[in-house]
Amino acid sequence: MAFDAFERMVAFRYLRARRQEGFISVIAIFSLLGIMLGVATLIIVMSVMNGFRVELLGRIIGLNGHLGIFAPQGAITDYEALAERAKQVPGVVAVHPLIEGQVLASAKGRSTGVLVRGMSEADVAGEALLASHIVAGTLDRFTDDTVMLGDKLAFKLGLKLGDPVTLLSPNGSATAFGTMPRVKTYRIGALFDVGMYEYDSNFVFMPLPAAQLYFQLPDAVTTLQVFVSDPDKARAVGYAVRQQLGVQYQVYDWQQSNSAYFGAVQVERNVMFIILSLIILVAAFNIISSMIMLVKDKAHDIAILRTMGATRGMVLRIFMLSGASIGVVGTLLGFVLGVAFTTHIEQIRELVQDVLHVNVFNAEIYFLTQIPARIDPHEVAMVLAMAFGLSFLATLYPSWRAARLDPVEALRYE
């Protein structure tokens, strides 16, 4: 082993302070707590940022696809042929034709702007995120006279399953008195909750034939929604799809469509890592200060050890082990605390809300209804390596000073 039994015995003895050495011990304890909290906080925050990105990506892509195909004229008339051609591109899993339009939804004296998306029943069933989060009703009721709403939208309008909802589109029919908006009433056939507030409170799904009739787009759609096997290769697949369909069609991948979301998440993630790493750095400086004070206090003991035959290397290793133990124990405790907190973060949030009666995680602000957390083993390993490395580096200078101590000078006035 790198440290023999004598070196370990002396090193750990120096960590158990006597009454006159209590101040040094207090500094060492605070150093340990600082590293523990720094490591735990870094693991928790990075896990939450990872979970937020994964959940946000999964929900956005789950409803919007990895690629979107648009026509310059606004409507795609030969959408079935184009969908078949797009499916021939390697990497493309599915292509869903759809119609999108902004309308006003009203019921029971309440109204709000919503996004109507017309899709076939088979395509709705093929989107796992949507089909697996239907909380009321079934897709069997998804017919020409029914629509599917987000549960938050239904709550906002005071609606329940089977109630009528009126949709008003400003793109209506031209008359002698001007453009008359199109108004039609539908029954609610199903409610969904995908866990993203923006979608649950703003989306209305309508059968594709009904949407074509409502938006006056017979035998046409506005978008082809494409799903690929590997989201990270969506841009390359999108380029191949555009080559397949022709340059007259515009193809946008999910990174282009949602660059603001994920760019902000990535910047915030990097900044938080840097800021929280400073906590560990400050704790490492506390280790340096406590070790320097320990070396100064133990100058007499070091001199006696040297006269008894201890080498400079033994003294160096004794103080390195003594200081590094603070960092190692703090890092391991921080790892356990961080992983435990991250694993039970949703239960902790609910407990805090129940005790303090405050909304800790507002879905309207954060887009998600629960705090997401996903532990990345590689990031945790990087945090632990950084904490271990800083703890080790913090012991080098004080240990070097202890090893360089001259026994004659230390014992001259004894």
Q: Can you give the helix content as a percent range?
A: 55-70%
How many extended strands? 10
Rounded radius of gyration (Å): 32 Å
Number of helices: 17
Query: pLDDT average, as an integer?
Result: 81
Dominant shape: elongated
Low-confidence stretches: none
List keywords for this structure.
alpha+beta; 17 helices; 20% strand
How does this structure look, described?
There is one protein chain. With 414 residues, the protein is an alpha+beta fold. The protein has 17 helices and ten strands. The chain is elongated, with a radius of gyration of 32 Å. It starts with a helix and ends with a helix.
Summarize, please:
This protein is α+β, with helices and mostly antiparallel strands and 414 residues long.
